[in-house]
Amino acid sequence: MLEQMLVQVLLLLGATVGVVLLFQKLHIPPSLAYLSVGVLLSSNTAGPVVSEEIVSVIAEYGIVFLLFTIGLSFSLPQIYALRHTILGLGTAQVALTTLFVSLIAWLLGFSPATSFVIGAVFAQSSTTIISKQLLEQNESETRHGRLGTTLSVFQDITAVPFIVVIPVLGVAAAQEVAGALGFALLKAGLAFAIVLIAGHYLLRPLFHIVAKHRSAELFTLTVLFVSLIAAWTTKNLGLSMAFGAFLAGMVLGETQFRHQVESTIRPFRDVLLGLFFVSVGMLFDPAYLPDIWHLALASSVAILMVKLLIVMAIVKISGVDIQTSFRTGLLVAVGGEFGFALLAVGLEGSVIDTLTSQIVLTAVLFSMIIGPFLIRYNHSITSLLFQTGKKKLAALAKPDGAVDEKPLKDHVIICGFGRTGQVVARFLESENIPYKSIEIDPTIVKEAQLAKQPVIYGDTSDADILSAANIEAASLLLISHNDHATSLKTLIRAKEMNPNIETIVRAKDETSAEPLRKAGASEVIPETLETGLMLVSHSLLALRVPHQRINDYITQQRTSRYPLIRELFKGKSDIVLGKYEDPDTEKLHSVLLDEGSPCLGKKINQLTLEQKYAVYISVLVRGDKRHVYPDKETVLETGDVLVLFGRPEQLKSAERQLIGAEPSDDDLSESTGL
Fold it and tell me: Between β-strands 412-415 and 476-479, what pairing exists: parallel, antiparallel or unpaired?
């Protein structure tokens, strides 16, 4: 039994990987790839079959985590702030589309319950297709782009009451629908109160305690536990699991942990949601296609036109120009993934029959195939129909600040809001330079947010957290924390997301600084070396050395990457402590020139140590005198000591040339102390 299940899981995963790779190469939305896998592996088609029970049980959690993520994006304060614009437009679009399509379906002979499900399914739009297509054609920040994206996201919220209502329609008799629906809404209100109260008194303190431990595993477990316990609560109240997850997400969306929670849940959501689309694809029966394709195609075209006209009308009534209203309608007309979720709920509750569900499912699929082309050519279609010039359309497509908050641009991202990060932030604030900071300490984040400072909670090396800080549009990344491993991961991820960004990174010493430079850091500030410079500066000031000369010393050392401070003798104790085990670590090494040395009588510049081995002479000791950075014309004599600076292997080669023999390992690990 277990072996058979493993074979089916491997078949499912293998087919999914192959089809998704193919669809991505063809630039087709991944949701259609998952649907295709479901069709291929269902019992309705020839070939290998995967048990629908296995997929459906797992797939239900995809909707749970999707609603949880949506809840994170729509906290109560955000919904309240948008009540006059998007809330009104979104409600009108969903309500009018559902009502109009339901009325048409009822006139065609469907029952009121079935008609309602059909209307609810067709009212949904694909946020994935809309946002992805707009991003590809650089229209995500235009007015119609913002309106279309926000309306589609709002539809995802309206799916929550639909998920509550549709099962009731299937179990109640016609005369009992009102009472059953009222009872369901009452339970929904009770669930909302439970999750809201629990969130305020339990969830926030819980996440604060968990975040203090700075354990990614513990944080992930907590996120999974909270989302699933909320889903279990609403399920036991007779409501959908997805509704509870949405409420939990909405509560956490008001906390400083929102971005990190969203980043943590995303891998689980994406995988399980993909399996949900696979389960929907299994509902599609190609055997019905010859008989229903014309009905499905006609329904698809009809719903595209209905949604286009409804959205255009309500956006125009809200005060937006006719061209932008039409372009917004073209975006929202596409069918949506949540329509599949509602259709699955309707089938499970016996609200809609198999033949009707096949027609509706195929119609939504057709609209999702046609929709991307409407979005891609929305400019040309609008220009053709309204005879609007390109310049005028470009002017109308300006960003709409009233719809969404303008994202940060050319700002500074501070990774780590400890003492160093806060000092930098103060100076940036005094110069009116915008910044966003990322901090993993929940106490600091809480205090900073209370002070209205732009700080978010999260792991700086997480791509989603960097994206939340709008890394793509930032001009400077400052990594100020002292966690070397995290700094390196953050730097690598940031350069992948924005290759042109300037980066300044704090490091402990020169040993940890070198990997950061190799990873692309524009500037690395070694903490211990800077401390040494400050000690030098204050010491020279105390000794009455002229201020300008001190500044020259400091500037020269910084521009030359701290040569005097980096040139250190390193002994066996350093190696034992594990500080300098890296073969690329530079160090000082002293070489005594005895009578047999082949370099005696030669000038320093004739040795060409820098060109051959990247080793240079830091000090020449002759008698009792030290000559720092000796003259290149100096002729070497018996008894001279050359203090070399370079990497261990190169030092060996240089010493071999100087003394004419192979140096021992002890020679390189022990310095003469000069």
Answer: parallel
